[in-house]
Amino acid sequence: MKNKIILYDFRVAIFPLVKRLIDIISSLLLLIIFSPILIIVSAIIKLTSTGPVIFKQKRVGKNGLFYMYKFRSMRIGDNDKFLKEKYPDLWIKYKNNDWKLSVNEDPRITTIGKIVRQTSIDEMPQFINVLRGEMSLVGPRAYRNEELNEYATKYPNTQKYIANIRSIKPGITGPWQVSGRNNLSFEKRSKLDSDYANNRSILNEIIIIIKTPFAMFSNW
């Protein structure tokens, strides 16, 4: 029993250090490797639509709220108001579908935005969040605070899952992204993220990272 306790404490102490090291090295390498794509996409977004190249929004992290970065894929302005006033049927669908619309049916998304979203290129700036220690390569989805609060009211049975999600850093990829992406309900997504939080290991991290490219390609 004593040996098992020592082994468990060793894993608890070492895992965060190894995970952070993987995050830093991988993010730096990926930013260097994909730098030509980052430059080209930045130029295309700037030339084809008005507004900033990078979109930032407050998300829930382990230590509170932080600004998460993405390539901007939507038009400038109050997009929720635009959808509600111009496309009331889609607005109702958007609300009833846990605040999600498919890329091809969402009129708020620009032409280049559809491409960067379908290929997940829009998420590449999040490597900066990883280097800053706000996110990890692997983790739960980075939710908006109001989104989690609404889900906790709408789906009371997920409150225990939400508590686990809030307890660790969100990730660029994670268990639900490689298990159905946006096709999963919040209840299923939150349970997958919660299970991940309770059973983290280097092996699980590697498995999710390996599965991620296949999940991305299946969404094209």
Task: Quickly list its features.
single chain, 220 residues, mainly alpha, two-stranded antiparallel sheet, globular
Count of alpha/pi helices: 10
Question: Which range best describes the helical content: under 10%, 10-25%, 25-40%, 40-55%, 55-70% or over 70%?
Answer: 55-70%
Give the end-to-end Cα distance, rounded to a whole number of Å.
50 Å
- Side by side, the strands of the main sheet go 1-2
Q: What proportion strand?
A: 5-15%
Helix-strand topology string: HHEEHHHHEHHEHH
Protein structure class: mainly alpha
Which residue ranges are poorly predicted, with pLDDT under 50 across at least 5 consecutive positions?
A: none
Number of domains: 1
Q: What value does the Rg take, in angstroms?
A: 18 Å
Q: What is the makeup of the main sheet?
A: 2 strands, antiparallel
Report the principal-axis shape.
globular
- Average pLDDT, all residues: 89
Number of strands: 4
Structure in words:
Helix 3 packs across helix 4 (88-96) and helix 8 (159-166) crosses helix 9 (186-198). This protein is globular. It contains 10 helices and 4 strands, in the order ααββααααβααβαα. It has 220 residues and is mainly alpha-helical. The strands form 2 sheets. A two-stranded antiparallel sheet has the order 1-2. Strands 3-4 form a two-stranded parallel sheet. It has helices at 2-33, 35-48, 79-86, 88-96, 111-118, 126-131, 145-154, 159-166, 186-198, 202-218; strands at residues 54-61, 64-71, 136-138, 171-173. Strand 1 and strand 2 (64-71) form a beta hairpin. The protein has one domain (2-74, 109-218). The longest helix is centred in the N-terminal third of the chain and has 32 residues, at 2-33.
